[in-house]
Amino acid sequence: MKQTDLARKIRESLRKSEWLKTPDLMRYRRRTLAPLLAHARTTVPFYKDRLAPLFDGSDRIRWEHWARVPIMTRTDLQTEGERLISTNIPRQHMPTTTESSSGSTGIPLEITSTRFSGMMKNALESRLMEWAGLDTSLKMASIKPLSPGDADYPAGRMTKSWASRKSPNDRIGPLVRLNQMTPVHQQAEWLRRHDPAYLSTFPSNARALADYFAANDLKLPGLQTILPYGEIVTQDFRDRCLEVFGASVFDNYSATECGLIALQCPDASGVYHLQNETVIVEVLDEDGGATAPGKVGRVVLTTLHNYAQPLIRYRMGDLVEVGNPCTCGRHLPVINRIAGRSRHLFRFPDGTEMLPDFRSKTILKYLDPLAWQVAQTGPMTIEFRYVPGTGGASPDFDGMTTYIRAALGVEVEVNYVTRDEIHQAASGKVFDYVSEL
């Protein structure tokens, strides 16, 4: 089968599988997972003994023993090297490629993937475009961290298309890129010049742009949808984008290790569907049990199509909140939000854990910062780091402290620290909330 025909068949299969009822989806997953487990057991040294509980000396998989398979950690992924790579990758899955990422921790990761697993990733990207209602004939702008000299201001860089053609008659719009190291006021000028329909960038960068546009009474009339990535998307961020740009936000949850993990539901607000046709996601509590709806748990995932470097019960370090079944009719499991990694959660002596979500309007009202970050530096201590605005107004620390205490529900001590800039991670990401305990 030609690669283009196979890609089309995969997309058509996904359009059907998203509507499978839960028992049918479970059977679909097991049919896909069973040959991968057998392959990993016999050709990937790392899994030879780890998968033994599933087989009990036979070739029949004992699904009821799934929880006995040891959890794989990020450290395993970084240190086990060749033991994680199959010694006999099926020819029909070849060739392989290697992707690397520092991730949000700055610790390098390398993942070897196959052509076939790449096709599955591309099919999910097509699903993203369909669910988000994107018109591929319109212009896409991308503002991301790039190497010095790549897509620099004022020209940036343009390519002819940002999506693949599904048929020869498809019209594909251009992709314009700009290096995120460009100052915000120059990013704004570049965006106004191009007036794209879609913008892909970090949420922290989009928020800085929204604040700049609002402060200078600027418009971006063509912008319809913002496609954030890499950082936590809060309701405050969504509200700000709608208020300033009139643009909706379509979010996704992805990782270098496996591609897309969850997509925002196109029909029900505030929920995400796990992409269970390509990755199995377990959300586990501290004791290793399934997390109940409404509670936050740790993500453990299993990839279904990468026969070069399978990930089986891999704990990424991410936290998500489990949701109830969606009203849209899709039976793909639901999470309510991506809470980030454990270091983003604030924890207090009474056992309270939370991911703060302060309102931008309130922060601007009391402090008028150009950028900001909130850190928990002690059990009952918060440090509010901010870059002072240019308006010259005196900050209202008492008002801001009262708001923070009310929002957290905890009588914390709040210290204010001015900065020339807010520190970025090695990947270029900026986290609004960090715990430094």
Number of strands: 21
**Which CATH class of the domain at 3-125 and 253-344 applies here?**
Alpha Beta
Count up the helices. Answer: 10
Please report which band the strand proportion falls in: under 5%, 5-15%, 15-25%, 25-35%, 35-45% or over 45%: 25-35%
- Into which percent range does the helicity of residues fall? 25-40%
Strands of the biggest beta sheet: in what spatial order?
Answer: 9-10-11-15-14-13-12
The CATH homologous superfamily of the domain at 3-125 and 253-344 is called ANL, N-terminal domain
**Global structural class:** alpha/beta
Main beta sheet, described?
7 strands, antiparallel
Q: What gross morphology would you assign?
A: globular
Going by CATH, the architecture of the domain at 3-125 and 253-344 would be 3-Layer(aba) Sandwich
List low-pLDDT spans.
none
Secondary-structure blueprint of this entry?
Layout: H1 3-17, H2 22-43, H3 52-55, H4 74-79, E1 96-101, E2 109-114, H5 115-132, E3 140-144, E4 157-159, E5 175-179, H6 184-194, E6 198-201, H7 203-215, E7 225-228, H8 235-245, E8 248-249, E9 252-255, E10 259-264, E11 272-274, E12 279-284, E13 296-303, E14 314-322, E15 334-341, E16 346-347, E17 353-354, H9 360-366, E18 369-378, E19 381-388, H10 397-408, E20 413-418, E21 433-435
Parallel strand pairs: 3-5, 3-6, 6-7, 7-8, 18-21, 19-20
Antiparallel strand pairs: 1-2, 4-5, 9-10, 10-11, 11-15, 12-13, 13-14, 14-15, 16-17, 18-19
